Structure formats: C-alpha cells, structure tokens
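Async update (no meeting this week)

Hi team, since we skipped the sync, here's where things stand on the single-chain job. The sequence we agreed to prioritize is pasted below, unchanged from the tracker. I ran it this morning and attached the output directly underneath so nobody has to dig for it. Comments welcome in thread, and please keep replies under the output.
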Amino acid sequence: MADEHKQIRLGILLSGSGRTMVNIAEYIQRGELEAEIAVVISSRGKVAGVEKACKLGIEPHIVRKKDYPDLAEFSGKITKILEEARVDLVLQCGWLCLWKIPDHLENRVMNIHPALLPSFGGQGMWGHHVHEAVLARGCKISGCTVHFVTNEYDAGPIIVQRCCEVKEDDDGEQLAGRVFEQECRAYPEAIRLFAQNRLKVQQGRVNIAP
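Output:
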C-alpha cells in the first residue's frame, strides 16, 4: 500500500477510447490527485486510447493477447512492464482482457464497472451490453462501481459506488453518458483513498478508515 502523502505511481491498462485515463490525467493536472501516470499498456494497437496516451506524453506499450501462446505468458508480460515502471496502483480503464494477477499485486489493481455490482457483472458484461441489460430489466437506478480486481470477473471487493437515475425514455447511449459522469468522480475518489492508506480489505470487504 502507498505511503501517506506520497505521490503514487499509476499503471493504466486500456483497450479502447482512453477517456477514463484522460479523466484521471486531468485530475492530476488540476492538482486534485497526488499521483502520476507512470506507464500505459493497451491490449490493442489501433484504438483512440493509444493516441491519447501519446498526447499525454506517454508512449504506451502494446500487449496483445493473441501475440502470446497462453494466459501465463500474456499476464507475465503485463506484470513485467508494471514492475519495471515501479507502479503502486494499477487501474483498468476500459480493459477487456482477463489476465492473471500475481499475489504481490493483490489489492493493488482496480477496475471501474458501469453498473452497481454485483448486478450486471461478469464475463461479456461491458460497455453498451451493461446499459442495455439495465434498461431491459427496467431498473430505476444505475451507476458505477470501483472495485479491487481478482482473478474472477467483476468479483473483487467493492471500494466506491455512485448512482444515477434511469429515465423512462433512456436509450443505452443516454444512460451510458449519465453513468460516465459518475465514473469520472468515482475513480479519482477511490485512487485518493488508496493513496491516503484508508482502504483495508478484511474478509472480502473494503473498510474505509476515517
């Protein structure tokens, strides 16, 4: 866990637009988050997130699952890059690949999910699939969840959740926009709590120290 008052080093994992990474970078630039983005890894070579990382002055590493013979080597490459960058905390920002998290990174990898876990989570539940499922179920509220990542989809201890209204005339895009507004607040909040050493995981639950 990070030391109090230390500027923590972040590792970003992305597979798409990179807008969550940009939101975090903007918090850092405004002085609202004591952190720095030390490294970016993309699972795809031709996505907007790669270009956005370059605009932030960070040359991203491209680590494609199909370039490795098995999950172990794919995961090992990711871990090696993160270790060489000496990251304190890993952030999955629209990262769509399962990777095996080593023991020494337990409770040091976060993910943000566009629904209120444990509802609407699991394999295949990402992006518009989540919002369409929420609308199909007739939910009256939705939101986002920041959680520590384990080696099981969307099953790690919950850190922060934020809610928003689901309106009667919403489509998936409208709901996604409202949820993303909450994501932009929730992820920096979770990072800040980590940096302040206020997150304690006990019996599968996150307790937030005052």
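Quick observations from my side:
The chain has a mean pLDDT of 95.
The longest helix spans residues 172-195.
Reply here if anything looks off.
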